[in-house]
Amino acid sequence: MTQAPPIFFVHIPKTAGTSWRNAIARHEGVKLLCDYGPGSRLTSPELTAQAYGQGDARTLLDGLDNQRLVIAGHVGYDKYGHLTTQENTVTILRNPVERLISEYQHISRNDPESVPDFREFVEEDGQQNRQDKMIFGIQPQSAQVGLSSHYSDFLFLLGRRLGLDTEPRMDNRTPNDALASRAAMPVDAIIHAFSRSVRDLELVYETADIMRERLDAVGIATVPETPRSCMLELAPDGQLQGAVEVPGIATAFISLQVNGAHRAVTGLRQGENGMSHRTFRYPLALLAARSGDTVSAELLGAPSTRGSLKVP
Question: Lower CB density within 10 Å: C or N end of the chain?
Fold first, then answer.
């Protein structure tokens, strides 16, 4: 029997990758090797020897005994991409400002002495368009790309395309106090973060289109037959709150915009399947919307569903 090519998971920090890695670690028939740097407790000894010593990483493919090798880590595609195919390369993307703030807060909690001001953090070369840099060389139309906002859809597609079913874990969740503090982020700082994440945001929208195409190909529609406009309001807790009529639709990709400019892709709230009206929520602060700005939401693939409100 021919050994299946290894799966290479480019784990971009703060994109729900820990959940998928932990699920894979419990998967029968898989040998998981991790690379989170030579000093990390998560890095597998085999990779420490091969990737950070004098060895040849290709020897990792020897002696698998019909196990499916999965290599995962906070490394770029160029580190192990040569060991497998585009089709067996996996990554998860996230709305870039969400990801930046999440990583910034993570570092602040774990190493507060080393963390700079948020604007300085965003200016670091390694943070600007970090997702684009890490996946450079990946061909999204061929690889297995997903969005953290549509994690269950990503798992479904991954199972069909790679034959690798994984449980829908949600590990490494953000503490409630960190979630609350995001609403207090200065608008100017968020706008600055968007200006340094242009390519990452483009990637998120490109990935949303790819996922929509793949779901449609297996008979899962993401746009209702008779689209109707999204209804929007601002909740007292600072969340943009929306509702849309989507009879017979289990999932949808919602584009959030400010004055016509793309800001984020979000999904329908879970637990509402079977309801004709589905809802979604997103922190207004993370859209960098000021008083007087127009915030809009629409289902990707159905521009007629656009609904708008003016920020008071």
Answer: N
Query: How far is the C-alpha of 74 from the C-alpha of 11, rounded, in Å?
Result: 5
Of 290, 105, 285, 293, whose CA–CA distance to 184 is shortest?
Answer: 285
Handedness of CA 117, 120, 126, 128 (dihedral sign): positive
Cα–Cα distance between 248 and 224 in angstroms, integer? 7
Which residue do the tokens 């196990």 mark? 67
Which residues have a Cβ under 8 Å from the Cβ of 234 and sit 6 or more positions away? 240, 241, 284, 309, 311, 312
- What is the set of domains in the chain, with CATH numbers? 7-216 (3.40.50), 221-310 (2.60.40)
- Tell me the residue type at 198: V
Structure tokens at 59: 């020897």
Q: Are strands 302-310 and 294-299 parallel, antiparallel or unpaired?
A: antiparallel
Output the DSSP codes for the chain. Answer: -PPPPPEEEE--TTSSHHHHHHHHHT-TTEEEEEES-TT-TTS-HHHHHHHSSSS-GGGGGTT-TTPEEEEEES--HHHHGGGS-GGGEEEEE--HHHHHHHHHHHHHHH-TTT---HHHHHHSTTTTTHHHHHTTT--TTTSEEEEGGGHHHHHHHHHHHHS--------SPPPHHHHHHHTTS-HHHHHHHHHT-HHHHHHHHHHHHHHHHHHHHTT--SS-SS----EEEE-TTSEEEEEEE-TT-S---EEEEETTEEEEEE-PPTT-TT-SEEEEEEEGGGGTPPTTPEEEEEETTEEEEEEEEE--
Residues 6+ apart with CB under 8 A from 44: 32, 33, 34, 35
Tens digits of per-residue pLDDT, 61-117? 665 566 789 999 999 999 999 999 999 999 999 999 999 999 999 888 888 778 788
